Description:
The structure holds 2 protein chains of 2 kinds.
Chain A: H1 5-26, E1 32-35, E2 38-41, E3 45-48, H2 50-58, H3 65-81, H4 85-89, H5 93-106, H6 123-138, H7 148-158, H8 164-177, H9 181-186, H10 188-196, E4 202-206, H11 216-220, H12 247-251, E5 257-261
Antiparallel strand pairs in A: 1-2, 2-3, 4-5
Chain B: H1 2-35, H2 50-56, H3 62-68, E1 87-88, E2 100-101, E3 147-150, H4 156-159, H5 165-169, E4 177-184, E5 190-197, H6 207-211, E6 219-222, H7 224-227, H8 241-246, H9 264-268
Antiparallel strand pairs in B: 1-2, 3-6, 4-5
Amino acid sequence: MKNIKYLLLRRVTQIAILFLYFAANAYGWHILEGTFGTSMLFGIIPLADPYNTLQVLATGFVLGSDVLLGAAIITLFYFVVGGRAFCSWVCPINMVTDLANWLRRKFNLDKEEVNYRFLKRSARYWLMVVGLIVSAIVGVAAFEVFSPITIMQRGIVFGFGMGGAVVLAIFLFDLFGVKNGWCGHLCPLGAAYSVIGSQSLVRVKHDHEACTNCMDCKVVCPENQVLHMINKSSISVTDGECTNCGRCVDVCNDDALEFGIRSFTKQN
Amino acid sequence: MAHSTNRRNFMATTLQSVGLAALGGMLWSGYTDSVKASPLVLRPPGALPEKDFLTACIKCGLCAEACVNRDTNVDKETGKQRPGTLQMAKGGDSLLIGTPFFIPLEVPCYMCEDIPCVPVCPSGALDMPSLLNDKKELDINKSRMGLAVVHKESCISYWGIQCDACYRACPLLDSAITIEYQKNERTGKHAYLLPIVHDNACTGCGLCEQACVTEEPAIFVLPNQVAKGKAGDHYVKGWDAKDQERVQNAKEIHTKTKRSEKEASEYLNMEVEY
């Protein structure tokens, strides 16, 4: 039980949030209405996707104050709890890509991983910027045209239509194509949250003294470049690409990894 | 030596990244541009003109949720909730994904007096001020979702068969649809009861389309930009002061052709050239 604590907490959070969105449409609940684009919490507090908001602003359209306020609230929230906490605790695509990852490990697909020269983890930052430029040129929020995140969420709330194909495509890409292909290389929303959360307070801390170098954490981590301090020094995982998913904390049998508050004093 | 190779590598990778980003950006722009071209769609009340609407809509679905969950949306016979008017475009709908729309034949807009779908719009894509009347109250009759159009050849009223289904279904009966009486010369003793749609009152709710009795509706709602023509500044109702205001800012246009070089009196008296 200990080694799936955060995994379980995340699944409960993800499914509960999706259910609240679903219930807003299906049963008229006023707890969490709308979709990630803009939501209403308890019918009054607006929440909005900051990257989606930025795309619309890039077109030159002056958005309503609810969206702007909502985007500010979400940005502030993830600025504190770790930008990519959205990715691992809220985003429905996380369940799809985690499944693909788990299957990769089960079927040993990771062993023969090809080095994809063209697909670097930095590609997502390029896509994030290109997405804003395309929005400005075409006059439509460009990522939202095919975003598997909102397509999956709207699919659950309003029905999938052919949108399910996009979600399946992401699954196949992550399973047979590139390891952590979507979330770890391409998703511009994840990139935006990496930027937002690069200074966030909640961070995983590593205890070098307790570590036995088993490397279990690096195997499960979807962004294992952020765990560069393992076997080296007792510092926090400060990289914005860390999703705060807590899988490393779960699998560590030496209590060498735990959530904590970022220390702002010089570490070493 | 190593230093210059590093720099060359760095330049090459940067160039490659910029190039791939530009390629991706162009494909992305092309795709996005093509999926937003969907002129045959009816939007919720108060929606901005289609092009602006596509820019402004944040695809949250709050309008559709407000529509389906309104208190009045119950089947009077069963007491159960009916499907909502507004749908959210899915993959395969050939519309910009995630934007709200409605299909009158499936569920028309019932023109709720409190317009639940509009005040919830957070982005301004559904423009509430456009639906306020002189007393600053929400007035659904001000909405212009589309315009009903009658296809005379398939409308049985135009055949001489008595039908006023659309007229009776219209929430703005006698102002958005009126019945015009005309003598039926074929029989000599009957009247045609012809439905006439009036653009100054029709909201495009689609209740007429749903009520129409023919196999494919002979009256149907089209988006405004498809259903309407435009006289433009070249023509004005000289007897109508209000219409004259419309052309106040009209610009003078000088057309230069081979013919306009001559005086009208010259070419009008010439023989016609073929």
